[in-house]
Amino acid sequence: MVYHFEPISDIQADCGMAQPLTDAEEDPAQSRHSSAVDPAWRHVRKRTPHSCRTEIHPISKTRRRPSADTCGSSCAKRCSLGIVGQGREGCSAVEISRLKISNFRSIKEADIQFGAVTVLIGTNNAGKSAILEAIRIALTRRWGQRGTGFTEYDVHLCDGRPDPKVGDPVVIEVEFQEAVANEWPEDLHGELEDIIQLDPVTGRASIIMRVSCSWEAAEESFVPRWEFLNVERNPLAGRGARAVKLQEFFQFLPVFYLEALRDVTDEFSSRSQFWGKLLRTVQIPEPLEQKSKRIFDLLNRRLLDADPLLANLANGLSHISRVAATDVPGQADLRLLPLNTWDILSKAEVIYQTEGGKPWLPLARHGQGVQSLSVMFLFKAFVELILSDLYRPESTAVLALEEPETHLHPQAARSLWRHITELPGQKIVTTHSPYFLQHVPFRDIRVVRVEANGTTVSALPRQFRAPVPHVPQIDAIIAASAGLITYDRGLNELVLSGALPQNQYRDLLIAYGGRPDTQTIHAALRKASDASQEFVSDAELEQLETFARRIRGEIFFARRWLLVEGPSDYHLVHGIAKGLGYDLDEHGVAVIDFQNNGSPEIMRESLSQLSNLGR
């Protein structure tokens, strides 16, 4: 059976006009806003029929649909069509921007930034799956119901404490933040206004959710808790703390998890999360349904009459009704064809032909690589065709995908990155494949490693932060920095978006002088300044990515790099190591010959810059 799907086209939406907020709509006591927020920013973005971003005017408290000049041509087109929930371009739906994990499995502490696509790499048992599982537990469990949440195996054990009941609580904090102000659709603001926080400086909206778990002696079990937070990381009260808000929130952020071992038989069954729901959306017109039933009945009767054995079998089964029936006589018959059209649809399967002249075969009869890829493209069809019907039109899917390169040959693994980026929604991917990594931008990579204190996560950051209080003296320094220095009032952190020059570093030290906590603040500034000197610009990254493609992504999995001049030295080093009984692979040493990959100076500088990410 073959199905052809076509997406809905050109959905029109009425954008509406500017509407002032009435006094009744303002609630100065709303717990979702910080007490430090400028009164001009104390507003609520009212829900309108339009789902594109809006211009917010703090003084007049009105909002207008942005013009094409304000929104940009791509966004203006999306606004005119009413299209939402499709990533960063133009109007965007909510995505995970940050994940903080404490005391969960192998992770003592981790703070991870996420983008539209984030790739987690690392050795076996480094903690990649634990990160995906933390997301799944936080965003797919129905909190408040028994049997949900954590077990004793989820508690991180350290400091010689073997009993998880006396360990520190598990804490998973998930943050969702607009990349730019007014990026989220208006309907989302209307539905989730009780939990959305607005940054008083940038105007960007965010949602912060915390899930925790600890042993409760009175309950004699591990008790999970959930709560939404304000910008100061304090729990919300009032309407923002109600369980109904949690369920509404989940409607905007459906999370799907595809394990490394993807079973095509299960994924394409009528009970699966994607295929089964797709089949159930197929609508058969009632006249065709009735006509099909009559045809099935007629064919079934002719098949029974075609062979006396079948007729005798049907007659024998009719005795069931005589034995089982009590007050109401029943009937029994032999059915060789489906009873209705759903019985046919539920048995639908995908068939695949490798090339012309070859037989068409079910997916389960093809190789594991084809089967694995088919599940990913099934997810794509599911999101594009029916996600908005099952959840909300503004929803964006989050796909947690383990090892998509499984069972693929090197060329297919290399081309896989393009297909991953084309999948709808936000993607969080784990991989072991250096071939897959060859085309992944460095800023999308997070290196997961096991260190003495547990799992660590490294990245090439765009920003460097110092937890210091705001003082008026830094405002002039920030204004003169041309965007290099900003201050995050929500987190009380100074933010550096590049390498901090020495003169501006000295100015900051002077600005924080003469305080009781000057020593602590100066230490935080020095740490951020030193880290910022390792900042890698986009131009430098382009050169590094070209270099990495030559030697594949193997460098990210190595703990040490050994530079040699050419192929002969490469083989010599391996021979010496073998003679000494030192297994280079076992110790995580990558031998790289720079003769075929650039000058030793460039190689040395490149690897030095990559050391912040790969080690």
UniProtKB/TrEMBL annotation:
Q: Which UniProt keywords apply?
A: Endonuclease, Hydrolase, Nuclease
Q: Which domain of life is it from?
A: Bacteria
Q: Which GO terms describe its molecular function?
A: endonuclease activity
Q: Which InterPro entries match?
A: AAA_GajA/Old/RecF-like, Bact_Antivir_Def_Nuclease, P-loop_NTPase, TOPRIM_OLD
Q: Mind telling me which Pfam families this protein's record contains?
A: AAA_15 (PF13175), OLD-like_TOPRIM (PF20469)
Q: Say yes or no: keyword DNA repair present.
A: no
Q: Which Gene3D superfamilies match?
A: P-loop containing nucleotide triphosphate hydrolases
Chain ranges of the OLD protein-like TOPRIM domain: 556-609
Q: Which residues form the Endonuclease GajA/Old nuclease/RecF-like AAA domain?
A: 96-180, 343-436
The answer to whether keyword Lipid metabolism applies is no
Instruction: Cite the PANTHER family for this sequence.
Output: ATP/GTP PHOSPHATASE (PTHR43581), ATP_GTP PHOSPHATASE (PTHR43581:SF4)
Protein name (database record):
ATP-dependent endonuclease
Organism annotation: Haematobacter missouriensis
